[in-house]
Design goal:
Layout (H helix, E strand, L loop, with lengths): L1 H9 L10 H12 L4 E6 L4 E2 L3 E10 L2 E2 L5 E7 L5 E8 L4 E7 L7 E8 L12 E8 L5 E5 L5 E7 L10 E9 L7 E7 L8 E4 L5 E6 L7 E7 L4 E5 L7 E8 L3 E9 L9 E6 L2 E7 L6 E7 L8 E8 L5 E9 L11 E5 L7 E6 L7 E8 L11 H8 L19 H9 L8 H5 L14 E9 L2 E2 L4 E8 L5 E6 L6 E6 L5 E7 L12 E7 L15 E5 L8 H30 L4 H9 L9 E5 L13 H5 L6 E5 L5 E5 L2 E2 L1 E4 L2 E2 L2 H5 L6 E10 L3 E8 L18 E4 L29 E9 L7 E5 L7 E8 L5 E8 L1
Parallel strand pairs: 2-9, 40-43
Antiparallel strand pairs: 1-3, 3-4, 3-7, 5-6, 5-8, 8-9, 10-35, 11-12, 12-15, 13-14, 13-16, 16-17, 18-19, 19-22, 20-21, 20-23, 23-24, 25-26, 26-46, 27-45, 27-47, 28-29, 28-32, 28-34, 30-31, 30-33, 33-44, 36-42, 37-38, 38-39, 40-41, 42-43, 47-48
Length: 800
């Protein structure tokens, strides 16, 4: 009954009436320490210069996909920390994808991909993902080699942080190395005064960790002597033996996490000690010891995490709310909550360039999949990092861990995982700082989508508290006219925008009565408010070294295949361009007619119209103040009258004509503010259909350019802003063809299928479809998905 009694005592959570220092700290933690982490999946682990890097980002808030951020920055750096390229990625339900196109002349070296949300910059750079990617180039004067030798160091960590006289204590021994760690290593523990007689010995559980137990005696000094499989040795000291303190033992099972506390030579024993368990910076468990006792034990049920996996941080505080011990442990390490893909059909062949497919169940709770299919060469190489290890381990632990994916594999060593967590500290926050009331400084809030600040200047002066018209034109869409009033600083704000095509922003001053608007004197700048942050952290050490290339430079087989694939793609692209040129040469079309078809919708298409083409013909418009002035005398029946603002207003056969800008109704003041070099076509319609008498102005689209040879006056009231980067579309096609000119001799593609957003369909099962290359006999298939409750589906296996 003793254990049950203590269980009742320590399972009582006291309500927050008058808050203690610890309770205030927990409130501080709950309110101010929300943090995100990123996992970045790339289609390959190494690339050739000229390759395309396909990537998918997953952003988590704890163990769920984040709803805090809608923007992810992904940046590419060289080994000198020079920014090569960057992408602004739209996040939907914490997921977003993109790609980098590597230049063909990129020097051979290790490159780094950094991924983070703006909100993550409020916290340590150590938790921003920096992924290592070696890039090879056969023409480079330098060559990458894998370092053969690596220095390593070791540390020993007592469970709970204390080493107390006469108390059996579990230690974790942890190896650290910049490049790689020895395959195997072992050690012994000695008393410094009697070094020839080992107290105990151990062997490594994996490359990272080992563990042992020792019962210390007061006044003695202990050392650990470690030796790796190459004969290298290192000696480290164990902590000094204390005469008093708190001893902690923790073990994880499928039922929960059992902990035992033992107080040694404590004045009040364990009375008024508190046990606090946090998961992802949130309180998950709290218990107070209300009786005078030296030993207690209890089991924390898995329901604290709703049965989900993850890391629990146990912290024990004394009667004065001082932190006296802490320990990380994993919830349910022997029962990982991972769903598998429901495959309802597959059609896989070994035939070169054959069509292959894998069908997923349409009845599944999972509706959106990330899928990667690659050729499997039979090497059985194990993955070093995956979404599971990032989600449950490395996303929250900043120290380097060798092959963290091993801890969540089929044959995972849970004892090694536990030892690893004994050697780690939770660095997302520091209990002493939280207890002191320290609050993180939030400089970058988690804004929804993108925001911009517009500053219009007139005659180099700020336009404070002034009404202006802002025309927004997104890609080929119709422009929208919006009226804004600048604030006291002269700014206009565009907030919460989500777009992936160029956005033209034009600002026009409202004309005063009797005066022209004088938009020639307007200058506008647009400043993005959601921007990348300079990288202040250090690039991670890698296993590669850069040496002078030899005459017969040897490339990895995968890189040779990648270079051949690039040659195949260039050949096909060159042939396609030639065919297109031949087809265009054979066609004889009226350029003006084609422009009219391109720009005009059905309602505005009329045979009774006069068209002025500014794209294919030089209309000598540059000398005109505006397009309405230029139109005077150029079309029969079209006349102009000046209004009270001295602006020419068009009339057709005595009636005022309607004015349209890109087929949107507008007025003469807006048209006269439009730069003439931005005009693609003008159409005059006389009494036709529903439109009646009208003058239509169409602006340039895409890559259109004015035919005018005259230099147009510079118009500065227009700015083009870039939104989210639109992901490229991965080509799903066969290189096989009956056309001898397009015949590819050797298809060497490694990535056969990449789809970061394979959606379930109401009509057919979600289908993975791809064409084989010339050599693949089996396929590596990676499938990742989440259901509505953020349960993870993870499938990574070889299909034959």
């Amino acid at each position: 009954m003793k254990n049950i009694f203590f269980l009742m005592l320590i399972s009582t959570v006291q309500p927050l009436l008058s808050q203690t220092k610890l309770e205030k700290a927990i409130t501080n933690l709950e309110n101010n320490y929300e943090q995100e982490k990123v996992y970045l999946l790339t289609d390959k682990l190494q690339y050739a210069a000229g390759d395309q890097i396909w990537f998918k980002g997953f952003v988590f808030d704890g163990y769920n996909r984040s709803t805090l951020s809608t923007t992810l920055f992904v940046e590419l750096y060289d080994s000198d920390k020079k920014l090569i390229d960057w992408k602004t990625v739209l996040l939907t339900n914490g997921e977003g994808s993109g790609d980098f196109k590597l230049k063909a002349d990129l020097p051979e070296q290790v490159y780094f991909v950094r991924a983070y949300t703006p909100y993550m910059t409020n916290f340590s750079d150590d938790f921003q993902i920096v992924k290592t990617l070696p890039v090879y180039n056969p023409t480079s004067t330098k060559a990458l080699e894998v370092a053969k030798n690596s220095d390593w160091s070791a540390k020993a960590f007592p469970e709970g942080g204390n080493f107390i006289n006469g108390t059996p204590t579990k230690f974790a021994v942890r190896l650290y190395g910049n490049v790689s760690l020895p395959e195997k290593w072992s050690g012994k523990i000695i008393d410094v005064q009697n070094p020839n007689v080992p107290i105990t010995t151990f062997t490594s559980l994996d490359k990272n960790v080992a563990s042992f137990k020792i019962t210390p005696a007061s006044g003695k000094k202990y050392q650990v002597i470690i030796e790796d499989n190459t004969g290298k040795k290192q000696t480290i000291n164990l902590p000094e033996v204390a005469d008093s303190g708190l001893h902690v033992e923790v073990s994880s099972s499928n039922e929960g996490i059992k902990y035992s506390l033992k107080g040694v030579n404590l004045k009040q024993q364990l009375q008024n000690y508190k046990i606090v368990g946090t998961i992802n910076n949130h309180l998950a468990y709290k218990a107070n010891i209300t009786q005078s006792t030296s030993e207690v034990s209890s089991t924390i049920p898995t329901k604290i995490s709703n049965g989900a996996n993850g890391v629990l941080q146990l912290a024990i505080f004394d009667e004065q709310d001082n932190l006296v011990a802490k320990r990380l442990c994993f919830i349910k390490p022997n029962n990982l909550k991972i769903e598998k893909a429901e495959i309802v059909g597959q059609n896989l062949k070994e035939t070169p360039r054959s069509f292959n497919s894998i069908d997923l169940s349409p009845e599944s709770y999972f509706k959106n999949y990330t899928v990667l299919v690659s050729e499997d060469d039979g090497s059985n190489t194990t993955e070093e990092e995956n979404i599971l290890s990032s989600l449950w381990l490395t996303g929250d632990l900043s120290s380097k861990i060798d092959s963290p994916a091993q801890y969540f594999s089929k044959n995972a060593n849970t004892e090694a995982l536990d030892a690893l967590l004994i050697s780690e500290n939770w660095k997302r926050f520091d209990w002493n700082s939280v207890l002191s009331g320290t609050v993180p400084v939030i400089k970058a809030n988690s804004q929804k989508f993108l925001s911009y600040r517009i500053k219009p200047l007139k005659d180099n002066a700020l336009m404070r508290d002034t009404n202006v018209n802002v025309v927004l034109k997104l890609g080929e869409n119709e422009p929208s006219i919006n009226q804004f009033r600048t604030d006291q600083m002269g700014y206009i704000y565009l907030n919460n925008l989500s777009f992936d095509e160029p956005l033209n922003v034009s600002v026009f001053a409202n004309s005063e009565k009797g005066k022209e608007s004088e938009n020639d004197h307007l200058f506008v700048t647009v400043e993005p408010l959601v921007t990348p942050t300079p990288f202040k952290g250090s690039l991670p050490a890698t296993k590669y070294t850069l040496v002078t290339a030899t005459e017969n430079k040897k490339l990895p087989p995968a890189i040779s295949k990648a270079i051949n694939t690039q040659k195949n793609i260039k050949k096909l692209e060159h042939i396609d361009v030639q065919i297109e040129e031949v087809q265009l040469t054979g066609k004889k079309k009226d350029p003006k007619e084609e422009l009219n078809k391109q720009l005009s919708s059905g309602m505005f298409s009329s045979v009774n119209s006069t068209i002025f083409d500014f794209v294919n013909e030089d209309q000598h418009v540059a000398g005109s103040t505006n397009i309405l002035d230029w139109l005077q005398g150029r079309a029969a029946g079209l006349t102009f009258q000046r209004n009270n603002s001295a602006i020419n207003v068009p009339y057709i056969r005595g009636q005022q004509a309607k004015l349209y800008l890109d087929e949107t109704p507008t007025d003469a003041s807006m048209i006269t503010s439009l730069p003439v070099n931005n005009i693609a076509m003008v159409k005059i319609i006389k009494g036709s259909g529903l439109i009646g008498n009208a003058v239509l102005i169409y602006t340039m689209r895409g890559n259109m350019k004015s035919k005018s040879n005259e230099k147009d006056p510079q118009k500065n009231n227009l700015s083009v802003i870039k939104g989210y980067d639109k992901p490229s579309e991965f080509p799903i096609e066969t290189l096989d063809t009956d056309d001898p000119a397009k015949k590819i001799e050797n298809d060497t593609r490694e990535t056969l299928y990449w789809n970061p957003n394979l959606y379930d369909s109401d009509y057919v099962p979600p289908r993975i479809k791809f064409f084989n290359n010339d050599t693949a006999k089996q396929y590596k298939v990676l499938i990742i998905s989440f259901d509505e409750d953020d349960n993870i589906l993870y499938e990574n296996r070889v299909f034959k």
